[in-house]
Sequence to fold (484 residues):
Amino acid sequence: MSSELLVNVTPQETRVAVIENGMLQELYLEREATRGILGNIYVGRVARVMSGMQAAFIDVGIERTGFLHVKDLMVARDADVLPPISEVLHQGEKIIVQVVKEPVGTKGARLSGQISLAARNLVYLPDQVVAGVSQRVEDQVEKERLRAILEKLTLENVIGGGAIARTVAEGASEAELAMELEFLSKVWRKSLDMKASSKPPLCIYEDLPLCLRVLRDFVGDEVERIRIDSSEAFASATKFSDDMVPELSEKLELYAGERPLFDMYSVEDEIERALHRKVPLKSGGYLIIDPTEAMTTIDVNTGAYLGKNNLDDTLYKTNLEAASAIARQLRLRNIGGIVIVDFIDMVNEEHKRQVMRALERSLARDRVKTYITDMSPLGLVEVTRKRTRDSLSHAMSEDCPVCSGRGRVKSAQTVCYQIFREIVRDFKQYQANKYMILASRDVIEYLLDEEASALADIQDFIERPLRLKVDTDYQREQYEIVLS
Fold:
């Protein structure tokens, strides 16, 4: 399936849209003020050992202590029986850990003592003796070739450790793999030196910024083009590509058009719709998506679709369409954890099998590990999708101050960035001399406080005065830009 990446960069945030066959399938968001910590490595301090839970809480210098289970320590990796954590860790002890799951809600980060460092073709495992190949490499001859190369390289590696070839390593030369292994080994050696000379907590390794991370992790032969709308980010991506992934260079494209890059594919509209709980289907049916702390529920409804034939066909066609839509929404909204799908009850067993096959086929395109159970007699299907980062809803919205968290509204930060984009869009389309921003009090205050520097940059860019005015009748998401 052909796809392309759209990279939108501003001083405040970077957004990457994955487009497949002209439609938005995934969105990655990274804000400078709240940059994620997934993949970061820390020298932490054991804050508390919980023997009953076989876990420890580790202070890594962020808001909440991280959670480390004994099974995620190297001593437990190949053990038949997990050792008591009280014999492995002690309060106050210094330890190197890596973030494997972002903090979510009131939960701290999930940590691991089994460190891994990723490059384009390899994952380096400094504390393990292994030469492995991704299961997604299906060609057995290629698998054995890669494994033989890694066995040789890891034996020659002075610092030790093991490595796993990633899916994109198919066809990679021994020289390319050797260069990456040497680079990752140097990064690890530097991290060990920092541990020896540092006082915890301290971050000793920070993962790549989003713009470069997607080039490393997501770009394969199926990606035809990567369009970037920032000359600075394009230069950075070009250098990274030339150094690490030369074959990507010809796919990189600097977008300098007047029309905003995301507008060309209606990405902004798709993002807006992805924040709503109701998802309309082409047939007239719809999905209702309700996330909670414990799980997400997805309800399938026929809506206005009554069908042309019998009721069974109507239910079958709605469920079939819903199966594909559900897989897309899980990716687009980045919904993780347990998902319960309530399909409309069907009597025909063959219809049930076809709906399950459609769901499995659609989920197969997901990069995130996903498991599904058989459909229950009541039409319920449990989907388990690995959670590694915030959902789109959590990243872009916050608890509603009016309903005390029963619903969601966009954060003031998100509304401010929408205003910035609309001002730039209006500036390119219209010849206005003055701009007035009408918005709610909290949005105006956010513009004047946290985003004062960005506001000044926008004003310098358009070379026009910006006036701000509070409209007390406006709710958080309401605003208007008046041109004169």
In short: The first helix runs from residue 85 to 88. Residues 411-483 form a domain with the Hypothetical Protein Ychn; Chain: A, fold (CATH 3.40.1260.20). The chain has four domains: 1-38+207-274, 41-114, 276-385, 411-483. The longest strand covers residues 41-50.
